UniProtKB/TrEMBL annotation:
This is Alpha/beta hydrolase. PANTHER family: AB HYDROLASE SUPERFAMILY PROTEIN C4A8.06C, KYNURENINE FORMAMIDASE. The keyword Ribosomal protein does not apply. Pfam families: BD-FAE. InterPro entries: AB_hydrolase_fold (IPR029058), BD-FAE-like_dom (IPR049492), GDXG_lipolytic_enzyme (IPR050300). Residues 27-130 form the BD-FAE-like domain. GO terms for molecular function: hydrolase activity. The keyword Hydrolase applies. Keywords: Hydrolase.
Length: 251
């Protein structure tokens, strides 16, 4: 690894690459007043792995986390259309998490690193749970085989994986958090009961299996919450999610 990059500004982000491809970068932010943040929020956006969706989806959560005294690492990664697909996308997020830990290595073991992923960002956060101290999964994709079976996201899984689940069973298993249990980290799963992009039953099944495997999982099913509103910090579900994150800082 190269020498440590300069610390990010406390008013604007610092963009740091973890690879040579254009989408391989992390935007780092520090809260404006705290000498040391209460936590590091590592944000991983969704978009069914397609390149027309990027890390700007998480802008409202960046601002919210900073306002709560957290440092923020907003992760970008290669997606379908700009070099991504499985397993490239998963490796990108793994390398991004390594960069986050290295960049703020003086805080390792001092403040919690909490990954927050939405939709397929939830998938990627759960798959990389070992690199975080806790995980928040917002309307996550937890079973890529089921995503393929149900043709969700305009049949996104087959394009992401390169073939149907029946043709690549081991690859689909490796890409599915539900097949990687136990995760060994505290997890909060939040899902709305009217979500049409990732049906809520996916999270119900995942939570049951994770708990059966011994994981500590808190599950909040939110009436009337749709897929996109899951990343809106002004929505009714967010104060409780933020409180759970704050609770990880005292563990």
């Amino acid at each position: 690894m190269t020498s440590a990059p300069p610390e990010p500004s406390r008013t604007t982000g610092q963009r740091i690459a973890y690879g040579a491809a254009e989408p391989q970068f992390v935007d780092f932010y520090l809260p404006t007043e705290a000498e040391r943040p209460v936590a590091v929020a590592v944000l991983i956006h969704g978009g069914y792995w397609r390149d027309r969706f990027d890390l700007s989806l998480m802008d409202l959560l960046v601002a919210d986390a900073l306002g709560r005294g957290m440092a923020v690492a907003n992760v970008e990664y290669r997606r379908m259309g700009n070099g991504g697909g499985w397993p490239t996308t998963g490796r990108d997020v793994e390398e991004a998490m390594t960069l986050v830990r290295e960049h703020w290595r003086e805080w390792n073991g001092v403040v919690p690193f909490i990954s927050v992923g939405h939709s397929v960002g939830g998938q990627l956060a759960l798959l990389n749970s070992a690199a975080a101290d806790a995980v928040v999964a917002l309307a996550p994709v937890t079973d890529v085989s089921r995503t393929d079976d149900e043709r969700l996201g305009e049949d996104a899984a087959v394009a992401f994986m390169g073939a149907r689940a029946a043709e690549l069973p081991s690859e689909y298993a490796a890409a599915s958090p539900v097949r990687q249990l136990p995760l060994g980290r505290p997890v909060l799963v939040v899902h709305g009961d009217v979500d049409s992009r990732v049906p809520v039953d996916h999270s119900r099944g995942f939570v049951g299996m994770a708990r059966a495997a011994g994981d500590v999982v808190e599950y909040r099913e939110v009436p009337g919450l749709d897929h996109v509103t899951a990343i809106d910090p002004s929505a009714s579900h967010w104060p409780a999610a933020a409180a759970w994150m704050a609770g990880q800082t005292t563990r």
